[in-house]
Design goal:
This protein is α/β, with parallel strands linked by helices. It has 19 helices and 19 strands. The strands form four sheets. It has a seven-stranded parallel sheet. Helix 10 links the parallel strand 3 and strand 4. About 5% of the residues have low confidence.
């Protein structure tokens, strides 16, 4: 096998234009040596050893570096170096009784036992420590460098969980990240095949070796104190948590809940909006109304959180025309204006009330063409300051009784020639930012009203705005409980490359420039101070910019 890998890595990677070409090459060489298809994780081990060798010449090293992106499975996952790690909470009673949610035994409400994330969680007995370690190791085995991590906690209504469980859960996530650089050395090198479909026994081997340090029988006070200690440690850890995302319902948002979320280190909140029509929400037994969505969104903004909406086309009581009307209102009405969107097209699964309605002919899902056309129309009107995270939920086809079965909906819409202005579609993908010309970075500021305040989307983009290189979300609201000016997000992609040379400057100081512009706008709005809802692992960055920690935020006093 080693000889096959060495032959693969000796190929001229300048001629390999995309991942499909690379896959063809892997198949040819695997067939030549009469072995199973080479896994990227196997190739990466040899690739790393060769790069570390002092015996290879400059030409070979340059060729190997070209291979790096092709070897990195699903490279989009860690664009700009941020690694999303999804972990699932254990099954708890749900406060809702939504018509479309499946209810499966020993699985969180609305989830199915054969979903990939759920299967991973079940293998780990829903242990957050083990889930985090397993995902970080899988990312590294696939060529990613998950030094900057965003933990995304899924599993239903976070706010409904017991306080003790919440602190225990997040504490173990932090501890897993802090411990990872040490414990990964003790895992067998052969275990890096855990990402294969038939490698469950290997995965279980890793899980059995990983021992979570904190048990659930500890006191709340102890867990809170330990969390502060692990957070402090994470500020200088080799692997840092730069973001924490929690899911909840709009009707569970209040000041106490948001303060606790900040205490845990949360920076982004996903809320199940589903629809912004009271009749549709009532018909689907959602349990909250549009007024609560409006209130929750405003509060989240005033506390600095990034806001993600879950939007469900094709709910009972709606139509494609009604869905489009609601989607347009999300960005024309200041009561809403989410920063990110997740499309969750309604599907019929067993174990839900919707399944019973479908069997009786009381519900009819949209056709593929209706759904494709609807989402295509939605994408066209998405503002440049919004990111569409996903277009479908990762539900296995065998579990879908009726509704959307298209797994590559994003690609299908792209093939229609639909031009989308969302952040995800404009992110610089190759990491290269020209210093001159039409694609050179220019500073733009978009201003819009949201939740009784003013939002500023400050961004470095190409002159034609086809590519975005970095952005900052600034909120100005003098009635905010945190600060009159609040930076809700700072995100930078890529590296700067000088024309005529190969010198690279990481981020070209874009983050510092974006923050300087945010402070300038805050001063113009007569704000006496500006705060940042910083992730734990990046507090040190803001300290270098003159910010000091105040409570769970980083704060800077502004002087004329």
């Amino acid at each position: 096998m080693r000889q096959a890998i060495l032959e693969l890595l000796s190929a001229d990677f300048k001629k390999i234009k995309n991942y499909d070409d690379f896959s063809d090459l892997k198949r040819k060489i695997s067939k030549k040596y009469d072995i199973d298809l080479l896994l990227n994780s196997e190739i990466l081990r040899e690739h790393k050893q060769l790069l570390a060798s002092k015996k290879i010449d400059a030409k070979t090293r340059a060729n190997l570096l070209l291979a790096s992106n092709l070897l990195r499975k699903r490279a989009i996952r860690t664009l700009s170096g941020i690694a999303p790690v999804a972990v699932l909470t254990k099954p708890y009673p749900c406060p809702g009784n939504c018509a479309y949610c499946p209810k499966e035994t020993d699985v969180p409400t609305s989830y199915l036992s054969n979903e990939p994330a759920v299967m991973r969680a079940i293998r780990c007995q829903y242990d957050p420590y083990k889930q985090t370690v397993l995902r970080l190791k899988a990312l590294e085995n696939n060529g990613h460098e998950p030094n900057k991590i965003e933990i995304i906690v899924i599993g239903g209504t976070w706010s409904y969980l017991p306080d003790k469980y919440k602190y225990w859960y997040i504490l173990n996530c932090f501890r897993a990240i802090n411990d990872f650089s040490k414990i990964k050395k003790g895992l067998d090198s052969g275990d890096d095949k855990i990402t294969g479909d038939n490698k469950l026994n290997v995965a279980k081997g890793i899980i059995n070796k990983v021992k979570a340090p904190y048990k659930q029988n500890l006191s709340l006070e102890f867990l809170q104190a330990e969390l502060k200690r692990e957070q402090k440690k994470n500020e200088k850890a080799p692997y840092s948590m730069i973001g924490l995302t929690l899911e909840t319902r709009p009707d569970y948002i209040n000041a106490k809940e948001l303060e606790q979320m900040r205490d845990l280190g949360a920076t982004r909140v996903e809320i199940g909006v589903q629809a912004i029509d009271d009749k549709i929400l009532e018909l689907n037994q959602r349990g909250h109304n549009v007024a609560e969505i409006t209130r929750a969104t405003k509060m989240l903004r005033d506390y600095g959180f990034k806001v993600t909406y879950h939007f469900m086309p094709a709910l009972p009581g709606s139509t494609p025309a009604k869905d489009l009307e609601m989607f347009k209102e999300l960005f024309s009405n200041p009561n809403f204006q989410p920063d990110q969107i997740k499309f969750y097209p309604t599907v019929v699964t067993k174990g839900s009330l919707l399944y019973e309605w479908w069997k009786k002919g009381k519900y009819k899902p949209y056709t593929d063409a209706e759904l494709e056309n609807l989402i295509a129309e939605c994408k066209v009107i998405v503002p440049e300051y919004v990111r569409i995270i996903r277009l479908i939920r990762d539900i296995p086809g065998e579990s879908i009784i009726a509704g959307n079965l298209i797994t590559n909906l994003r690609q299908v819409i792209q093939q229609k020639g639909i031009k989308c202005r969302c952040i995800r579609c404009r992110e610089v993908r190759d990491g290269l930012i020209p210093s001159r010309g039409d694609k050179a970075a220019k500073l733009f500021v978009t201003q819009y009203a949201a939740g009784e305040g003013t939002e500023y989307f400050i961004n470095f983009s190409s002159a034609d705005k086809e590519k975005i290189y970095g952005f900052c979300r600034l909120r100005v609201n003098h009635h905010s409980p945190i600060a009159p000016a609040l930076v809700r997000e700072l995100h930078v992609y890529g590296v700067l490359v000088k024309i005529g040379g190969d010198k690279k400057i990481q981020h070209a100081g874009f983050g510092k420039k974006l923050m300087a512009e945010a402070e300038k706008i805050a001063r113009k709005n007569k704000c006496s101070e500006i705060a940042v809802i910083s992730g734990i692992g990046v507090r040190g960055y803001y300290k270098k910019l003159g910010y000091k920690q105040k409570g769970t935020y980083m704060l800077k006093y502004l002087h004329e």
